[in-house]
Amino acid sequence: MEKPTVEVGRWDQRDPGRRAAPQSALDGLEALAWLLDSSIPVPGTGFRVGLDSLIGLIPVIGDAIGAILSTYILVMSARMGVPRVTLLRMGFNITLEAVVGVVPLAGDLFDFAWKANRRNVALLRAHAENPSQARRGDWLFAGLFMFLVLAVLCGLGWAGYSLGRWLLS
């Protein structure tokens, strides 16, 4: 007899027939995140690192491999029907870890602490348990992110304009 799957919750309240992923799928992604971010204890400390952090020690290519492995959780979340705004937040976590990870030493320390995969699985679980609450937080993040991008672009435009005026005077 086949064991029934446990459904965690609804992904989309507008479509009552669309259900969340089985508990086993969420548990599998959580296990992958643990392997990539927290599976190896650092001797003499209570701190843990994962395979992603160790692979990230290889200059340039290590961070690319880590980002590719992290993207699996993002792709599976998309297949499970997670809203795009939550996927944006997950993608930001992966991108930040990969970009900062390129910086020698400081990037590796950041990679040890950020744990993008654990963060992304937490977002996935939060969305599965309470879709409307998780979505509000994701929209807040997206709005602040867009505001920050706009502020940086305006700042760069102002700096370019000021530099141009200075050079022409």
Describe the structure.
Helices cover 70% and strands 2% of the residues. It is mainly α and 169 residues long. The protein has a domain at 23-131. Strands 1-2 form a two-stranded antiparallel sheet.
Write down the overall mean pLDDT. 82
Basic shape:
flat
> Based on DSSP secondary structure assignment, what is the total number of beta strands?
2
CA-atom Rg in angstroms: 20 Å
The helix content is: 55-70%
Task: Outline the low-pLDDT stretches.
Answer: 1-19
Output the helix-strand order.
Answer: HEEHHHHHH
Distance between the termini: 83 Å
Give the strand order of the largest sheet, numbering strands 1, 2, ... along the chain: 1-2
- The helix/strand class is mainly alpha
Tally of contiguous helical segments: 7
- Residues in β-strands, percent: under 5%
Instruction: Name the assembly state.
Output: single chain
Largest sheet: 2 strands, antiparallel
Topology:
Blueprint lengths: L22 H15 L2 E2 L6 E2 L1 H5 L5 H19 L4 H18 L4 H9 L1 H14 L1 H38 L1
Antiparallel strand pairs: 1-2
Helix pairs in contact: 1-3, 1-6, 3-4, 3-6, 4-5, 4-6, 4-7, 6-7
Salient structural properties:
2 strands, single chain, mainly alpha, 2% strand, disordered N terminus, two-stranded antiparallel ribbon, 169 residues, flat
Offer a concise description of the structure:
The protein is mostly helical and 169 residues long.
